[in-house]
């Protein structure tokens, strides 16, 4: 499987849904033979197809490969055994998943979502609940934002647990920067 080429195609503007139509083993060939007419045939508007071909000209495979390496970003395909099984069952699961660090060690995950402007009661409740979840083998999944997301991650890490942050703006955009 050549996940690098799927990542390159994604960086050019092919959506996760479009990537689903491209077999991983054929991604390099698809990349090498892609042109405006092929994109239009597969449903892209002329303007979008032109932008993708322009990006292909200006953004090399080596550039994407270097960026992934510099940021320690890994790519996993939905058909890989390492792809998170809980994510795989979603009808619109991403075809490729970008991650840093480690993927969840098991399916024992709890998602915590809350307000950015949380109450002290909410924070103290998490500080009481999360240690027991960690001791029971659960990991925490949340966004990487201010507020409850931060409290959930920090409390999980303080207790030696697994935590995963799902970034809304992309894996290379950590917001807020203070949550690096």
Attribute tags:
180 residues; mainly alpha; 3-stranded parallel beta sheet; two-stranded antiparallel sheet; 46% helix; elongated
Mean pLDDT: 85
Secondary structural class: mainly alpha
Radius of gyration computed on alpha carbons:
19 Å
- Give the helices and strands as they follow along the chain: HHHHHHEHEEHEHE
In this structure, how is the largest beta sheet organized? Answer: 3 strands, parallel
Low-confidence parts, pLDDT < 50 over ≥5 residues?
Answer: none
Strand count: 5
Total number of helices: 9
Could you give the order of strands across the largest sheet? 3-4-5
Q: Gap between N and C termini, in Å?
A: 31 Å
Percentage of β-strand residues: 5-15%
In helices, the fraction of residues equals 40-55%
Shape: elongated
What would your notes on this structure say?
The structure is a single chain. By secondary structure, this protein is mainly α. The protein has helices at 3-12, 16-20, 27-33, 36-41, 46-58, 61-70, 85-88, 120-135, 148-158; strands spanning 74-77, 96-99, 109-111, 139-142, 163-165. The strands form two sheets. Strands 3-4-5 form a three-stranded parallel β-sheet, covered by helices on one side. Strand 4, helix 9 (148-158) and strand 5 (163-165) form a beta-alpha-beta unit.
């Amino acid at each position: 499987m050549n996940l690098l080429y799927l990542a390159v195609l994604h960086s050019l503007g092919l959506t996760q849904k479009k990537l689903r139509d491209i077999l991983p083993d054929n991604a390099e060939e698809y990349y090498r033979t892609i042109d405006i007419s092929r994109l239009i045939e597969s449903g892209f508007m002329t303007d979008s197809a032109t932008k993708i071909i322009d990006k292909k000209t200006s953004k090399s495979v080596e550039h994407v490969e270097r960026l992934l390496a510099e940021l320690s970003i890994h790519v996993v395909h939905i058909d890989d055994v390492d792809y998170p099984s809980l994510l795989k069952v979603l009808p619109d699961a991403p075809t490729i998943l970008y991650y840093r660090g480690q993927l969840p060690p098991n399916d024992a995950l709890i998602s915590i979502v809350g307000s950015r402007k949380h109450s002290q009661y909410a924070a103290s409740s998490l500080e009481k609940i999360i240690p027991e979840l960690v001791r029971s083998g659960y990991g925490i999944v949340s966004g990487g934002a201010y507020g409850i997301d931060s409290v959930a991650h920090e409390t999980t890490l303080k207790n030696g647990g697994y935590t995963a942050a799902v970034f809304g703006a992309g894996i290379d955009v950590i917001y807020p920067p203070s949550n690096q």
